[in-house]
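Ticket opened by: R.M.
Priority: normal
Category: complex prediction / small molecule

The reporter submitted a protein together with adenosine-5'-diphosphate and asked that the result be attached to this ticket for the collaborator who will pick it up next week. Submitted input follows.
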Amino acid sequence: RELVSPDAAGDERAIEAALRPKRLDEFIGQARVREQLSLVLQSALARGRPPDHILMSGSPGLGKTTLAMIIAAELGVPLRVTSGPALERAGDLAAILSTLSEGEVLFIDEIHRTSRPAQEMLYLAMEDFRVDIVVGKGPGATAIPLDIAPFTLVGATTRAGLLPAPLRDRFGFVAHMDFYDVAELEQVLHRSARLLSVNLPPDGAHEIARRSRGTPRIANRLLRRVRDYAEVRADGVVSREVAAAALDLYEVDSEGLDRLDRAVLHALLHRFGGGPVGLSTLAVAVGEEPETVEVVAEPFLVRQGLLARTPRGRVATAAAWLHMGLTPPPDAVG
Ligand code: ADP
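Result attached by the on-call engineer:
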């Protein structure tokens, strides 16, 4: 799970930080988002004013945090980083907002998990650059308006659909981040291999890219595991054979499915006859939170054409049966 989980943990974070592109022109893939963002930033710079608030949505590990850092770097302003779960009380947010400097970028990761009171404070801050500080309790409480410096909010979410409309509407630009294709992930891998001094021929990069679930974070992580394998069991060169053997060892299959992906498909096929089955029932069967199944496993399975979300529940496609080595029933969806 740790190996292929798109969420970073521990000292993996330090390496991840070292591998982050620093400027927009170093950022690989996401051509449309890059072009849109570049326009937003250039016009803000030309006008000498902070750009509109920016929302980025997409699966974990696609580069949302990286882009937030790049936005601040391109604007030449400081960056403040926080996350939705850290903003439990509106006061936590007020403390940050009231100390922002002019033009600063405030990055709120997992913004869909911000508490209701903090969200309401955000509306006012985003629109009027103002917060109401509530002093006292009960009937004697009063709200003292406080001006804050104009800033740019950059929000990231894995689930744009969960954002309340009033919050979503206050972003002037929404960047939808997609999974990366194999060629783009090869570029990510070659760049990382250079930075980490890994000997990575093209066929090795291709093999890792194919199995990286369309996600740069996973590509970088798999590269490090394959490098370990190459150093211990081979001559250090990450050839296609070495990459394939290492990834088999780490239970990343030929299409890049990891253990969670396969557990979901396994339960769907073996326990529920291919579905339809509801998300929470499916999550219980694999021993995970529904949100983990929905955010981490499903988007990739859907994109690979292995799983379909229907109004009646989750359904395995014919390709899913085949991928798991089974014969699809005649009524399996295409
Ligand atoms: P998110 O915030 O969406 O979960 P991150 O921005 O933390 O993802 O990116 C995860 C890792 O993937 C980082 O180490 C980053 O270097 C790498 N990465 C993400 N996007 C790109 C990209 N477009 N080009 C190169 N590396 C990338």
